[in-house]
Amino acid sequence: MSEAVTQLTDSLLQQFKDETFVLLNTVDVESGGPTSTAISWIYAENASTFRLAIDHRSRLVNNMIHNPLITITVFGEEMVYAVNGRASVRQDPLQDVPFNMCCFDIRIEAVRNALFYGAQLSSVPQFVKIYDQRAAEKLDEQVFAAMKKA
Question: InterPro entries of this UniProt entry (predicted)?
Answer without folding.
Answer: Pyridox_Oxase_N (IPR011576), Split_barrel_FMN-bd (IPR012349)
